[in-house]
Amino acid sequence: MNLRKVLLTFVMFASASIAFAQKTTAQNTINRDSLPDDAIIVKRVPLESGPALESKEDILVVDTIPSSSEGLNIVLYNDNTWRYVRNRNIDVLDETVFTQDWDTTKIQPYNVELKDIPISMVIDLVDSLKSYHYPFKGRVTSKYGPRRRRIHQGTDIDLETGDPVYATFDGRVRVTTYVRGGYGNLVILRHDNGLETYYGHLSEISVKPNEWVTAGQVIGKGGNTGRSTGSHLHFEMRYKGQTFDPERLIDFSTGTLRRETFLLKRTYFSPYSRFTQDFEEEIQSDEEDKRIAAEAAAIKYHIVKRGDTLGRIAINNHTTVTKLCQLNGIKKTSVLRIGQRIRVR
After folding, report:
1. How many CA atoms lie within 13 A of 30 on its CB side?
2. SS3 state at 65
3. What is the pTM of this model?
4. In this structure, are strands 171-179 and 212-213 parallel, antiparallel, or unpaired?
5. Strand 120-124 versus strand 261-265 pairing type
6. Is residue 51 over pLDDT 50?
């Protein structure tokens, strides 16, 4: 009981800090009006890698405490640590992410041509829940792009067989399979931000299709299976089935994300477009990222609470129901969910 009181006191203090961070994050979103007509928004995750999650056998849950958001719970562990855990029945950033083109058997389920993908996509990369962790931190042995008359669609990171491999973002396992002559043991995760990450050549797989995972959770162990000449992790990042250079986002030597907001351009899906290939382009992209982040301050969101209606939300925020519907792509008859985020400005 004393342990619980101490942890509760700590969590209450931390919750206040998190609430402030969540408020800041809610304001620090993308101003859609400033983007091209064909641009789309994808959620973002934090810069620094969060703590790794050990296997379930190593720690025990002492208690679960509700937070100010019905989409989040605070879980206390027997090693005096705590963590926010999403309530997946309520807290879904975009319900279509885990329903559209969801296939647990096909490696490539998307039927989307490159020309049909928007010219630019804003990947929002900061989340107050610390939902980022490097897949593996180590030396890059083979980069994304052309390699010996073949196209290398990911980044190879040196490791030893048996080293833990981590989920990069929160999300759900879509595929676990063995690809003979290719990936070997492969795990594909789809994330809350709409991206998919591939983890190849594993010696062991620790997750199953449709299982929810948290950033930092061990999903398998590094290995040398499939078409591989030595132990390493083959890591890919994809959007709608299209690959781009993972080093644009992750510095694998330090394990950190390179930027808070990432403007993913259609041109990046070319295997000949690699990180630092054009230094001036990288500077321009970084400046564009900062500009987008600066414009985000004008955006305001409301988290739906019990008893809320579109009319009440509109009155409280000095706007109209029609404007709310336009901003959120919903109808006046749409049913609101507790914990749902509604843009009001």
Report:
1. 24
2. strand
3. 0.66
4. antiparallel
5. antiparallel
6. yes
